Fold:
Amino acid sequence: MPRVKRGITKHKKREKLMKAVKGFRWGRKNNIKLAKEAVLHAWSHAFVGRKQKKREYRSLWNVRINAAVREHGMKYSEFIHALKQKNIALDRKILSQIANENPDVFKQIVEEVRK
Structure:
């Protein structure tokens, strides 16, 4: 069998790793062993962070809707229940945007739900 030299492959792998750790602090930006471990941890935290972001946004939308609904004399839970009873299919993100940007339209939605 012919001899296989791995220089190019190894160099490309190291370049890719160093690109991923650019901006890291201390030895983790230029020490290969530390960089490998730092990247593994960073990517796992990034995965978790993407899930947490969705959670945090949903709670933010709920708070915004609750604040807007209370101005019209309702509670958040009553409002959401009434929406489902009336088969109004607006999700919390859209309701939050309407409440924030168009309070008059949101007032009409609340009035429609109240009937």
Remarks:
- The CA atoms of residues 12 and 111 lie 63 Å apart.
- The chain has a mean pLDDT of 95.
- Helices lie at 7-20, 32-70, 76-85, 92-101, 103-114.
- The longest helix spans residues 32-70.
